Amino acid sequence: MALLILWVLQFDLWAACPKPLPQEVYSTRCTGKTIFFQNEGKSQKLKDCELGQSPKLTMNPQITTLIEKLRCLYGDKIVITSAYRNKKHNLYSWAYVYKKTGNKRVVSKTSKHQLGRAIDFYIKDFNFQKHKNVVPQLHKWAGFFSKKIRGSKNKIWVKVYQANEGRDPDNLHSSPYIHIELRDK
pTM value? Predict the structure, then answer.
C-alpha cells in the first residue's frame, strides 16, 4: 500500500511539471543593433549578431536539469533571459554595459554563457525576501546533480541580482534575476 501511495505522489509531481523547454530557448537572442562607445579614448562601434544568426549549442545538462526542476515548482513563471551567447552577442553585451556604466568587468569577455555553462532567469511575481531558501535549494540540487553526472568536476555558483544591478542587454527587465554558472573545481 505504501508503495502505491509513493507511486501516485510521484506521478502527481510529474504531472505538475510543464513540458520540457525546447533547445531554442537556450540560444543567443541576437538583436542586430549597433552600439557606439568610447574605449580608451577611441570611438568604437560594434554590431550585435543578426536575428536568427546564432548557431544552437547544447547547454550543460546540469543547468537544464536545474531549470526543469524549478519549472516543476514554479511552472511557466520561469523566464529565461540569457543562456548560450555566441561570441559576437557576448561582446555586444560587454560594450553595452561598458557604455552605460564605464565598468569593463561587469560582462566577462570570456563568459561561461559562451560555453553553455551559465544561465540568467527570473521568476514572475517572485518575492526573494519571502522565499530566501531558493538559492540554498539551488545549491543543494546542483550538488545532487553533480554527483549523478559521472566525472563531473563542476561547482555551481548562484547569484541573485537585485532589480537595479547586473543589467546587460538580455536583462533589461525590472525583476531581480538569478544567474547560475558552472565553474571548474
Answer: 0.75
Residue 108: give the domain boundaries: 25-184
- On the 0-12 / 13-18 / 19+ scale of CB atoms within 10 A, 51 is exposed
Can you tell me the distance from the alpha carbon of 66 to that of 145, in angstroms, rounded to the nearest whole number? 8
Q: In angstroms, rounded to a whole number, what is the distance separating the alpha carbons of residues 108 and 91?
A: 9
The SS3 call for residue 177 is: strand
- In this predicted model, what pLDDT tens digit does every residue of 162-174 receive, in sequence order? 777 767 788 887 7
- Tell me if 49 sits within 8 A of 32, measured CB to CB: yes
Cα 53 from Cα 57, distance rounded (Å)? 12
* Amino acid type, 104: K
Q: Which among 72, 160, 73 is positioned nearest to 120, based on CA atoms?
A: 160
Tens of pLDDT along 76-134?
Answer: 888 898 888 888 888 888 888 888 777 776 677 778 988 889 999 988 887 766 666 66
Can you read off the three cell numbers belonging to residue 103?
Answer: 565598468
Domain for residue 14, yes or no? no
Q: Is residue 6 part of a domain?
A: no
Between CA 131 and CA 139, with CA 136 as vertex, the angle to 5 degrees is 140
49: CATH: 3.30.1380
**Number of domains the chain contains:** 1
